[in-house]
Amino acid sequence: MEEAILLTEPTEPSDAARLDRAIAFFGVTARRMSLAEFLAARDSDDSAPKFRVFSKGSTFLELLGALGKEGEGSGFWQKRIHSVFVYASGDFSALEKAVATIAGQECLLAETDPAAE
After folding, report:
1. Rounded to whole angstroms, how far apart are CA atoms 24 and 39?
2. Which candidate, 51, 42, 34, 48, places its Cα nearest to that of 85?
3. How far is CA 54 from CA 71, 115, 116, in A?
4. What is the pLDDT of residues 41-57, one digit of tens each?
5. Distances from the Cα of 62 to the Cαs of 27, 94, 97, in angstroms?
6. With bands split at pLDDT 50, 70 and 90, how would you rate the model's confidence at 71?
7. Domain around 48
8. 42 contacts: CB under 8 Å, gap ≥ 6
9. 51: buried, middle or exposed (CB in 10 Å: 19+, 13-18, 0-12)?
10. What value does the mean pLDDT take over residues 20-46?
11. What's the structural domain count of the chain?
12. What is the arithmetic mean of pLDDT over 67-76?
């Protein structure tokens, strides 16, 4: 069975609970990990399945910064990451910064209100 990693912070239990339910709907189990735990686990068994990561924008931005400082970023992404799903969680500017960091240039994301549509 596939497993997802929910990068969480101690202050966001409601976000993680909603993600747990959404991921479970698709038959995927999820394990919650802090950013520190995730960074420590990245050096585990190379034969382990690749990570499917779910993270809010600010946490993902921290991950990008941590990997960039160590100069190991590109190899880690290729060897250990299957996919990454990043969401705003009320901090749209952090999501924009994460996308800009990945794209290597400024970007402008459109924030919409689903209730208004």
Report:
1. 24
2. 51
3. 23, 24, 26
4. 776 666 677 888 999 88
5. 29, 10, 11
6. very low
7. 3-116
8. 76, 80
9. buried
10. 83
11. 1
12. 63
